[in-house]
Amino acid sequence: MLLEFQNQKKWVKNIMDKFFTHKYCDRCHGSLEGGRTMSMYNTDCICIKCKEEETKRPDYKKAVNADHEEIKKGNYNYSGIDNR
Ligand SMILES: [Zn+2]
Asked: 0.85 exceeded by the pTM?
């Protein structure tokens, strides 16, 4: 259980390090100076423009719901329906 917790912490740290050190959007490779956010579909760090595009996807609600469902189940490691 403790090991599981440590792995989870390590995983979150990796994601956060990636998230905060990123200079360019994972999707359009534009600058992240205007703001950044995590994709609902995977662990990509994306710009606000790409996030807007993402919310227009017909399956966006599904991605959000899947994320909430996994968190409810206690799976904080869930990385999205599109994770590669
Ligand atoms: Zn972008």
From this structure: no
